[in-house]
Amino acid sequence: MLLKDRVAIVTGGAKGIGRGIALKFAAEGCHVVINALHIEGARKVAGEVEALGRRSLAIAADVSKSTEVSTMVDQTIERFGKIDILVNNAGGISLARGGAIDNTTEDDWDRIIDINLKGQFLCCRAVVPYMKKQKYGKIVNVSSMGAVHPPAPIIHYHSAKGGVLSLTSNLAFELARFNITVNCLLPGPVRSEFFNEMFQGAPDKEKEDFFERLGKRVPMQRMGTPEDIAGVALFLASDLSSYVTGESICVGGGLPLTPD
Ligand SMILES: NC(=O)c1ccc[n+]([C@@H]2O[C@H](COP(=O)([O-])OP(=O)(O)OC[C@H]3O[C@@H](n4cnc5c(N)ncnc54)[C@H](O)[C@@H]3O)[C@@H](O)[C@H]2O)c1
């Protein structure tokens, strides 16, 4: 097992990519703290982790709020005594006004940057003292291929995900001497509830057609799955990547290559 007796926090772990990562880690022997905005979803995935024979803890916390992040880390230490791995996966998008600069309000900008970038900073800041003390840590940040190859203009979200790339290289440089690696993965399109906001009230067929079109734009001719992303997260969270830090890995089925 690649993560035997390790302890991980997976933010946004109640569904989609975060759930996929949590279950992959648990299958490799890791005890996993499942963070989410709402406790019910976190509890459900914590139950799935326990069903795999590992320990788990569900914690509701908004990663963009420093007091809630501190409490999450305190609770993790109280229960497990250490934190080996942090996966900064929580994130989200808002398309209520589209993503073009003319329509983006200051409030939209602040909220999306807070969730997708500040949240990662706050979680790193809270776990790093424990990782430094044990001279071991693996931080995996989730960015997006949209940060470097935007499929459409979504200025706040893509800027936040671009910031995650810089946060990763800065922190990797700062923490390398403590045997803490900090790496980043950039998913391409992955089928999850991430896209739900776009289809509120729309018939299922509309959503299915959208996913099919999106898949066809990928050289591998399909959308990604949470498991596709979880495999790379496992590599970055395990000692298979013991000498890899400051890297950003695209997980996009061949994107940005075009199939033609
Ligand atoms: N699905 C895609 O196509 C895609 C592509 C590139 C990057 N990503 C990124 O992957 C990550 C996971 O996305 P997903 O597709 O699983 O989406 P998802 O909507 O299924 O899951 C996102 C999770 O993050 C949680 N979350 C959101 N804001 C939070 C906050 N402030 N505090 C705590 N938790 C919060 C949600 O509750 C949810 O559990 C996100 O960072 C997203 O930006 C997704």
Features:
260 residues; alpha/beta; Rossmann fold; 2 domains; seven-stranded parallel β-sheet; 7 helices; 7 strands; 44% helix
General description of the model:
The structure is a single chain. The chain is α/β, with parallel strands linked by helices and 260 residues long. The protein has 2 domains: 7-188 and 225-250, 3-Layer(aba) Sandwich (Rossmann fold), CATH 3.40.50; 193-223, no CATH class. The protein is built from 7 helices and 7 strands. The protein has helices at 16-27, 39-51, 66-80, 106-134, 155-175, 204-216, 226-237, and strands at residues 7-10, 31-36, 56-60, 85-88, 137-142, 180-187, 248-251. Strands 3-2-1-4-5-6-7 form a 7-stranded parallel β-sheet, sandwiched between helices. β5 (137-142), α5 and β6 form a beta-alpha-beta unit. The longest helix has 29 residues, at 106-134. The radius of gyration is 18 Å and the shape is globular. The chain starts with 6 loop residues before the first strand and ends in a 9-residue tail after the last strand. The model has no long low-confidence stretch (mean pLDDT 96). Residues 11-12, 14-18, 35-37, 62-64, 89-92, 115, 119, 142, 144, 187, 189-190, 192-194 line the site of nicotinamide-adenine-dinucleotide.
- CATH topology label of the largest domain: Rossmann fold
The side-by-side strand order for the widest beta sheet comes to 3-2-1-4-5-6-7
Q: List low-pLDDT spans.
A: none
User: What is the approximate shape?
Assistant: globular
Using only C-alpha atoms, the radius of gyration works out to 18 Å
Q: Specify the structural class.
A: alpha/beta
CATH architecture of the largest domain: 3-Layer(aba) Sandwich
- How much of the sequence is in beta strands? 5-15%
